[in-house]
Amino acid sequence: MRHSWxxxxxAVLMFSPVACAHSASSPAGxxxxxxxxxxxxxxxSVLRDLWLGHILAIRNVAVATMDxxxxxxxxxxxxxxxxxxxxxxxxxxxxxKPASDKxxxxxxxxxxxxxxxxxxxxxxxxxxxxxxxxxLTANASEIAxxxxxxxxxxxxxxxxxxxxxxxxxxxxxxxQLKAGDYPHEAATWTGMKSHIYVVADALTDxxxxxxxxxx
Length: 215
Prior knowledge:
mainly alpha, 0% strand, elongated
């Protein structure tokens, strides 16, 4: 069941970014106001770095876990939390502090489910892996609902597709690290990085469409 979920999730990657990008390119909320392309590009760069930090920090946790190095894992987890705070803080200028706090809580839930799956993968507990997948899916739905409610240029189904594919990358990477299959893990990392840039760009485009006067 777990492997089937991963394959379906990766298949979603083939179409959900297109839907999200198409929505983000729809007319801006304020008639006659156009976002500054240079400021949009700058924001994309910032959000790409933040979301790249997310997958890098979690990979560091995974490596430390597979190496059975608790001190390295603790340090890596601190990096995950700090990164989540930065990502949540990035939406505060647009939606305010309560929304930023809510996003941080949702990102913490994402990591909690990812961590549960990582630990279950390391121990070989299939039942716990499946339970973690359910947590990940429920959390992805919450995040998709939150973002689509806040921004009409982020349809829930498109965001859900992006997040599901993102989660599948994490789970695939954990299996490969456990198996010591580093060549395939390197390929997963390449795809993971490309996809997280799609996520970051979709968020930026949606913000620019909704708040062109802030760009």
